[in-house]
Specification:
The protein has 140 residues and is mainly beta. The chain has one helix spanning 2-18, and strands at 21-26, 31-38, 41-46, 51-58, 61-66, 71-78, 81-86, 91-98, 101-106, 111-118, 121-126, 131-137.
Amino acid sequence: MNRFLIVIMLLLTATAFCGERETIRDAHGKVVGTATTDGNKTVYRDAHGKVTGTATTDGNRTIYRDATGKTVGTATETGNRTTYRDATGKTVGTATESGNKTTYRDATGKTSGTATTSGSGTTYRDATGKTVGTKKCGVF
C-alpha cells in the first residue's frame, strides 16, 4: 500500500501540468504505465492497460484509491507543499515544489527523491540522484 502511495506521489507531481495523457517509463525507457485525466479524476494503468488505481481531486485534497476502489491515501496541498497520508491518516511523506523541482521526503523528513520538469517531461531521481523514471505528457 505504501508503495502505491509513493508511486502516486511521483505521478501526481506533474499531472496537473500535463492535461489529459501521460506515459510513465522506467529508467531504461520502458513504458511501465499511463495516467489519463478527465476532469478531476486520474486513472492509472500498468503497461498492459490494467487499472492500478485512481486519484480524485476536490479543491486542495486528493483521494487515492486502489484498483478495487478502496481508499489507500490522501494528499492535501497547502501552498507549495503537499502532505501525503495513508488510509488511516498517518503522514507517509511530503512533496515541496520550488521552481521546476519537487523534493519528496518520507515521514521522518529524510529526502527520498526528486522530480525535475523540463518542457513536457519530468525526470524522477532517488535520494542518491540516480534516475529511476521519466514521464512525458501527451504521449502514449
